[in-house]
Amino acid sequence: MSEAPAGMKIMVSIGGYGGAGAEPVTLMAFKSNALGTLTVLDRITYRDIADEGFAFVTNLRLQNYDCLFKEEHLADAITAYKEAEGMATIQLADDVARWRPRIESDGVDTHGQKYRLAADISNAEVAVLALAHFMSRQRGIESLGRMTDDIARLYQITSI
Predict the structure, then answer these.
(1) What is the mean predicted confidence (pLDDT) over 96-101?
(2) In the chain, domain spans
(3) What is the rounded CA–CA span in Å between residue 78 and residue 63?
């Protein structure tokens, strides 16, 4: 049985938000398997490809990425971010805290809480949302992996 890795290093590059002339941004984050947390660590020089050893999330159709974040994912990303914020499983380092997504409550309807993003949302704020979405998707993948391991253990045959 293999030991689970300590965590995952993630880079996210987002562009297309923040109005005319807004530069795309790249943030670095770390997902701790032991703590179940995601920490957004720093803004770095924009990358269109991830450094070695990093998962890469982007909304730009770049050559290589691990997760393509699309406009249609925004609603799920907002929900994932709000849930992670409420459970304290997403943390923003002091240097990136200013990019905490500006999410306004827009009431509740029969489908649940409704949210609205600030009209001038920045690339960095969307990058944080993309990370929350990625983290949410990773939890599903990890759960499936654990379930597969559990089923495999049930069917192990011991020979003498």
Answers:
(1) 95
(2) 7-153
(3) 26
